[in-house]
Amino acid sequence: MKYLPLLLLSLLFVGCDKGDDTPQNPTEAFYFPPTTGSTWETKSIASLGWNQSAVQPLKDYLAQKNTKSFMILVNGRIVMEEYFNGHTAAATWQWNSAGKTLVATTTGIAQQEGLLSINNKASQYLGTGWTSETLDKENLITSRHLLTMSSGLNDASELVIKSNLTYLADAGTRWSYHNVFQKLMDVVAAASKQDFEVYFNTKLKNKIGMDGFWNYGAIFKIYNSSTRSMARFGLLALNNGKWNDEQIINETYFKESISTSQTINPSYGYLWWLNGKSKYMVPGGQTVYQGALVPNAPADMYAAMGAEDQRIYVIPSKNMVVIRMGDASDPANPNFALSGFDSALWEKINAVIK
């Protein structure tokens, strides 16, 4: 009997030795890379028990489809980091519409600081007459309508100027993918009394160690950054807006962002795309398609999607973030968001992770 305590202690240590730190172990700590420097912990494919024979076919596919960079993170650690066609870890690339999620997040930060409310009419911050609608129709549009693509403004032109912002439907009654979301940047600027980029840099970019800059073109306002900076934002999203011990964006607001925001297109949140819903719509039309956005991707996935297949896939059930940057996978069809590339890519990813 005197050996029993020693035996129990021995069994305890054996039980705690997992051999590696695979994310399937629920006790593994979530990792955040330092906000300065190039240090970033990695994790081997072998330690995850993934199918190593499927890795090269995935790389080959990515190279064939004009990819510049690709990353897979599990619990914050890099499992794959690949660069193609001369692109490097230091090089920047445009997020295109994937950067909408940066605007949505920054808007939420401004709300949590009491600078604005997304339920207030947009003209409270933009001033009356920011559209070419009648005042009664303009006053129906809230910042939340801009976040959810349901402003009802005419979507015939992507150029966001007053003469193009004409009435098509009452706010909240029509979903339409539209660049008018960019007015949220003006809402934040007015509410914070500083340039949007200055506020964004202070409240979001610098706090999680991102690099990058906003390119203010004639039509689009596009974020450009390194691949790792895109991955940093993906990690923030995977952790419900928290970075290390700091809640950068209110968790309640962030969870609203990645939940169905209106009934017209249930696969859309606050500028985030949502998988696993019963139906979805795509940019450029009013057709409602039945089924999930990307049927062969995890149902709980939410994604930042930009033209030419810029992607941040966030998969909570797998503690995973996947990043893809590059030129359009199909140059003849650069698309605005969802494309056939998503399904084909997930076929290759599934072969690796299953």
Automatic annotation (TrEMBL):
EC number: 3.-.-.-
PROSITE patterns: PROKAR_LIPOPROTEIN (PS51257)
EC class name: hydrolase
Superkingdom per UniProt: Bacteria
One Pfam family cited in the UniProt record for this chain: Beta-lactamase
Segments forming domain Beta-lactamase-related: 69-325
Family matches, as InterPro entries: Beta-lactam-related, Beta-lactam/transpept-like, Diverse_Enzym_Activities
GO MF annotations, alphabetized: hydrolase activity
Keywords: Hydrolase
Keyword Endoplasmic reticulum attributed: no
Alphabetized Gene3D superfamilies for the sequence: DD-peptidase/beta-lactamase superfamily
Name assigned to this protein: Serine hydrolase
